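Researcher: For the annotation table, I need structure tokens for tRNA N(3)-methylcytidine methyltransferase. Please keep the output clean. Sequence:
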Amino acid sequence: MEMKIDETEHVRENGDIFIHRLKDLTDEEKQRLEAQNSRIIPDAKAVRLEKEAKRHWDLFYKRNETKFFKDRHWTTREFQELINFQADERITFLELGCGVGNMVFPLVQEGFSNFYFYACDFSPRAVEFVKSNSLYDESRMKAFCADLTTDNLFENIEEGCVDIASLIFVLSAIHPEAWSKVAEIAYRSLRPGGLLLFRDYGRYDMAQLRFKPGHKISDNFYMRQDGTRSYYFTEEELQELFTEAGFEIIMNTYVQRRTVNFKEGIDVPRIFVQGKYRKPCND
């Protein structure tokens, strides 16, 4: 299904711009992208990166522990659905690709006492960091290892038991050939009417434009210095992916914003894709 493009910009008070069109590239940015094609990662190395994906992420968490990603205190602002439940209504929440709990634990701190949290990740080391957090409470949360490109998530949870699932900066790290399986797993985890909350890197984000030759695996898919990988999405790709998985598209848009750190002299434009996808009530 072809999506109608809305050129209107919706500007938030915090300066975030929600828009349904790609960033216009400067001549310099076009040259950077073209230069990336001068040295593509060989197929044999790309295959090895796929086979060693878990090891690279486990080493990432060994090096950085819980210090790399900031806690996501912005999620209740961006996803109002998290706070639209009655206080006495029991809600089951699943964080797909939880890392060290940067989404779950801010929700715990904000007092979501009626939520039961499941948190899963590819990396055993990341899961151990979640379990060792002082906010981890076995009476209201369960953290476990799961590979979202297989069915083993359902060794720890029942299909169709989740009210809200999140997939935040996770899909970009997974090989494009496995995306449909990830979308299927997310769909199967949700009850009818359940909601998937999504945010990830958008096409022509600053991080994509900064890659040097020797890091490109395939179109818009790159290897970072530490061996982890990242893809940069268009909203059309995500619209097609989640529609084919059976979801209703509630929201699917680019978010343009600036990352500012005055102390370090950082002021860079960022582009993300944000979505809300619902499992039909009649499924």
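Researcher: And a one-line annotation?
Model: The two ends are 20 Å apart (CA to CA).
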